[in-house]
Amino acid sequence: MSHVNPNPLPLVFEQPKGRGKPPRHLADLDLAARKEAVEAIGLPGYRAKQLSTHYFTRLVSDPAEMTDLPAGIRDQLVEGLMPHLITPVKTQTADRGTTRKTLWKLFDGALVESVLMRYPDRATICVSSQAGCGMACPFCATGQGGLQRNMSTGEIIEQVVDGARAMARGEIPGGPGRLSNVVFMGMGEPMANYNAVIGAVRRMVDDGPEGLGMSARNITVSTVGLVPRIKQLTGEGIPVTLALSLHAPDDELRDDLVPINTRFKVEEAVEAAWEYARTTKRRVSIEYAMIKDINDQAWRADMLGDLLRSYGDWGWVHVNLIPLNPTPGSIWTASDPADEREFVRRLEAKGIPTTVRDTRGQEIDGACGQLAAADA
Predict the structure, then answer these.
(1) 236 labeled binding residue
(2) Residue 363 above 70 pLDDT?
(3) Catalytic residue among 126, 158, 287, 368, which?
(4) Is 310 part of any known ligand binding site?
(5) For binding S-adenosyl-L-methionine, which residues are annotated in this chain's numbering (predicted)?
(6) pLDDT in tens, 364-376
C-alpha cells in the first residue's frame, strides 16, 4: 500500500491574515498586568487579586457569585477583564459519562474541541491550541482541515477552567474531584502557537490566585517536531512533559506522514527531544500512531529502538503507541493486534519502555487524531 500523502496541504506557521484577535482576558495577563488593567477602568488595583481569586481559585465567572465585591462594580470588573471567549455548542459523552467532548464556538465563529477524561486516579483534559491545524498530517482529521487561526492564552485557559469546574462540581460521574492533568493534544500544533501556549502553561502552574496552581509535571505539550520551539521550551525552566509525535523512525516515510519532516528531519527532532530530557530531567514521550502496513513493520520497531537507545539507556524516553483512530475518508486503518504486540516486544527487547494508549472517546470522535470540530 502506498504511503504517499493523498491530500498534501501547505504548511502554515503564522496566523492567517484577516483574523481578528480575541478580547483581552484576565488569563492573558500576569497579576501585575491585571492590576494595571483594573486601575485603567477606574477601580482600585487590589480588586485584581480578588477577581483572580474568584476565577483561578474558586473557578467562578458569574458576577452574582462574587459576594465579597461591591455589587456596583462586579459587572464592570467582569466585563472589563473576563469577556466571554468560548461558548459551548455541543457536548457528547462516552465511557459511561467519564469522557466528555465539548465543541466550542470562539468569538469569531471558529470551532474547536476539548475532551475531559476521568480515570480512577486522575482527571485529564485534552485542550486545543489552534482552530484547525497547519501541519497537514494526512492521517489526522484536524490536520486535513487546515489552520484557521491561533488561539489566545485566555481561550486555552477557558477550556481548562471549564474542566476544573466540571470536576469540582461533580458533573462527571464519580463525585466532586480535581482536574489534575492537562495535555496539549487537541486541535492544533502547540509549538506553532508558542507564546499563547507558554502563557497558558504559566497560568496553570502559577500559584493561586495568580494561576491554577497545577503541577508542571502533569502538563504535557506535544509537537510534531518544530525543533527551534523545542529548544526554546528547553530554556523556559518549566518542567512540563514533552511529547514528540514521531510516527516513523526514517525520513523517507516521515516526510509523507508528518510533512514538517521535510524541514526538520527525524534525527534533528529526536536530538532536540533528548536535549530537553537531559536539561529538564523529564522523560520525553514519543508518540507513534500505529498504521496498518505503513509504519508498523517489525524492522521499523528495531530502527526506532536503535535510534532512541543511541542517546543512552538512562530512562530519558518512553514510547506511546497509538492505535490509529478512524477518520472520515481515510485510506488507512489501525495495525493488526499481532503486529502491534510484536512492535511492543521489539522495542522492549531494546530496553525502551513502551505502552499502548487507551482509545477512550473513539465512538464520539474524541480520540487522538479525530478532533475536527464538526457542528453536526
Answers:
(1) no
(2) no
(3) 368
(4) no
(5) 188-189, 222, 245-247, 325
(6) 554 554 555 555 4
